[in-house]
Amino acid sequence: MSLFIIGDVHGCFHTYLKLMDHWEPKTETLIQLGDLVDRGNFSPLTIRLAFEVKKVFKNSVHFLRGNHEQMMIRYLQGEPNSEHWLENGGRETLEQFKAHKLDPYFYLGWLNTMPLSWENKNVLISHAGFSGVGSPFDIHNPDGVLWNRKPLIHMGKLQIIGHTPLTGTNPEYLEASNSWNIDTGAYKGNYLTGIKLKKDGTLIEVITIPTDPRDIEHKNTLPTGMVINNKGQNISLSN
């Protein structure tokens, strides 16, 4: 099976659907490298679609955890000092769940099962990549695979990452670390990128989809100004 790897979606559901049209389930393993949620207008629908696709295709589909999923998990679990998610897209995401009459807590168990990386003998995929600083799989490590902004180290495999949005149309390959960054800033109104590879890491195709305007314009808000807090209670956002 070849690989089809999708970058940071960030709630851009309609753009995500257009890119998913390029997936060939019979011949391609699908891997999404995290940050399905926040920023765009349709985070609940991206979560629901990913959840249903994983349920149907099971072992041929892998949704990795990004830092925005990690923030969402911590908030929904009521962990201390987790309210900063609200200022990083979480406030709007909770409003969207309420508007779509979906329960974010329904997906919490699944979010907790999201792995931090996927790899085979030749390819290594994670949200933010390997910096060589601290433990890469420590979810609290600012230089780990959820949060890293430092240059990547060469891991002896082709790395595919997202996390740090690029400004151009195309993903970026860096020879020094043998890595691709495929976050082309969908939520910024740029592009959502997918990259197709042979299982040995050979590039087959890069697909860039312009952000659908519906995904980012006229941010959805609720007239009531209410969201669900991390204790499952309604709270006002109007004050």
TrEMBL record:
Which Gene3D superfamilies does the annotation name? Answer: 3.60.21.10
Q: Which residues does the UniProt record annotate as the domain Serine/threonine specific protein phosphatases? A: 64-69
Q: SUPFAM superfamilies recorded for this chain?
A: Metallo-dependent phosphatases (SSF56300)
Any single GO molecular-function term of the entry would be: phosphatase activity
Q: Which domain of life is it from?
A: Bacteria
List the InterPro entries hit by this protein, alphabetically: Ap4A_hydrolase, Calcineurin-like_PHP, Metallo-depent_PP-like, Ser/Thr-sp_prot-phosphatase
Q: For this entry, list what GO says about its biological process.
A: RNA decapping
Pfam family for this entry, one: Metallophos
Q: Name one GO cellular component term.
A: cytoplasm
**What name goes with this protein?**
Serine/threonine protein phosphatase 1
Q: Which organism is it from?
A: Belliella buryatensis
Q: What is the lineage of its organism?
A: Bacteria, Pseudomonadati, Bacteroidota, Cytophagia, Cytophagales
